[in-house]
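Help needed: design a sequence for this.
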C-alpha cells in the first residue's frame, strides 16, 4: 500500500500515461505557470527551471506530498523550439528540423510540499529527422498532431515515419524520461515492485 502522496503537476496526457506505466498511484494537479525564461540560459537549465516552476506552484498549494513537474523543448542549431503558436509556425519548425539531427531536452523536478527536499535533473536525446518535402510537412500539420507538441512533432504518432534514428531515451522525447524519474522517486521512498511504496 502506497502511503505517501505523489502528484503529477502536468496537463500532458503523455506524461500521465508514462508515469502510470510505473505502477505507482498518483494524482494530477495542474497550475498555471508563466513558461517564459531568461534569454541566454542554456537549454538544459531552461527545462529544469520550467519543470521546477510547475512542480513548485503545485507543491505550494499542498500541505504534504511529492510533486513531479517536467518540461520538454527541442533545440535545432542553437534555436529553441517550443510548442507551435499556429499552423505556419508548425510548418516553419518542421522545415527547420528536416534533414538534420536535433536535441530534445526534458527537465524534471521533484518537490516535497511543506518545505522538504527538492531535486532537478535533465535528460537529453538526439533525434535524426529525414528530409521532409513541403507536401509531407503540410499533410502532417493538417492532421493537427503537431499543435500541442514541442518542435511540432510527436515521435509516438505519424511523425515516427520521419525518424530513422535516435540516441538516448525514447520516453524523454515523448515528454518524460521515465527511467530517470524512477531513480529519483526511489530516493524519495517511492520504490517500484516492493511491498513498501512511499512509506
Ligand atoms: C518532441 C515531442 C514532444 N512531445 C510533447 C511532450 C510535452 O507534452 C510537449 C511539450 O510541452 P511542455 O510545455 O513540456 O508540456 P505540456 O504543456 O504538454 O504539459 P505540462 O506543462 O502541463 O506538463 O510536447 C511529444 O508528445 N512528442 C514528441 O515527440
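Sure. Designed sequence:
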Amino acid at each position: 500500500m502506497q502511503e505517501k502522496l505523489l502528484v503529477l503537476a502536468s496537463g500532458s496526457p503523455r506524461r500521465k500515461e508514462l508515469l502510470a506505466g510505473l505502477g505507482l498511484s498518483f494524482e494530477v494537479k495542474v497550475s498555471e505557470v508563466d513558461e517564459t525564461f531568461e534569454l541566454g540560459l542554456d537549454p538544459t537549465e531552461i527545462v529544469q527551471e520550467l519543470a521546477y516552476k510547475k512542480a513548485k506552484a503545485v507543491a505550494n498549494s499542498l500541505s504534504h506530498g511529492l510533486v513531479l513537474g517536467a518540461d520538454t523543448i527541442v533545440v535545432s542549431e542553437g534555436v529553441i523550439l517550443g510548442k507551435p503558436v499556429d499552423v505556419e509556425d508548425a510548418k516553419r519548425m518542421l522545415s527547420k528540423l528536416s534533414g538534420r539531427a536535433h536535441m530534445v531536452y526534458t527537465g524534471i523536478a521533484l518537490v516535497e510540499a511543506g518545505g522538504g527536499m527538492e531535486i532537478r535533473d535533465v535528460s537529453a536525446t538526439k533525434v535524426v529527422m529525414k528530409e521532409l518535402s513541403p507536401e509531407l510537412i503540410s499533410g502532417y500539420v493538417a492532421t493537427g498532431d503537431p499543435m500541442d507538441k514541442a518542435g511540432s512533432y510527436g515521435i509516438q504518432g505519424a511523425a515516427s515515419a520521419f525518424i530513422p534514428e535516435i540516441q538516448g531515451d525514447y520516453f524523454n522525447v515523448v515528454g518524460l524520461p521515465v527511467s530517470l524519474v524512477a531513480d529519483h522517486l526511489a530516493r524519495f521512498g517511492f520504490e517500484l515492485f516492493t511491498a513498501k511504496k512511499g512509506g
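The chain has a mean pLDDT of 94.
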